[in-house]
UniProtKB/TrEMBL annotation:
The keyword Transcription applies. NCBIfam families: sigma70-ECF (TIGR02937). The keyword Magnesium does not apply. It comes from Chitinophaga niastensis. SUPFAM superfamilies: Sigma2 domain of RNA polymerase sigma factors, Sigma3 and sigma4 domains of RNA polymerase sigma factors. This is RNA polymerase sigma-70 factor (ECF subfamily). Keywords: Sigma factor, Transcription, Transcription regulation. GO terms for molecular function: DNA binding; sigma factor activity.
Amino acid sequence: MRENEQIKTLFERVCYENSIQAYNELYITLCSRLIHFSASIVSSYHLAEEIVSDVFMVFWQKRNQLSHVNNPVVYLYVSTKNLSLNTLQQQKRHRHHSLDTLDTEMLAIAPEAENGMVSAEVAQKIERAVRSLPARCQLIFRLIKQDRLSYREVSQLLEISTKTVDAQLTIAVKKISQAIRFDLSDELAQTYLHQDS
């Protein structure tokens, strides 16, 4: 989890040293992930960009009060989730909105052929399989596999138990493994899809 340690260091430098350089690095590191996450809730990349910008602006304004935050990644994801849901309520575009009605097209990040482990064609098959998952299952898979959050972080963010996270991830991995079983050896598929909790 080297990246999370780097994020925590940058977050602390912003809080304790008022470092604008650390703030910019933190924004660059997380903005794409947070924009995709927000866009899946509000169904608009443009609006998601504004929301993430607002989340970081509020973070900068309150930086001296946030030194107690133990997990900056979860803090920023929860802030993004809350502001996204609040924005929807204010716009009254939806009377009731939950994370079960995500716009999964907005979640999709172009699949990468990680370290040459899978071909672009197999990466596309994986992406199609991920897109076929139910919304919450897909969100959990993407938060763990693409955004590299831990089970605990996902459970905090979505306010569900780690057992639920594990169950949803197991479903996702099983369905994706079935979709790509002819393209990758079992061992390679498990390596690609495996995530430590």
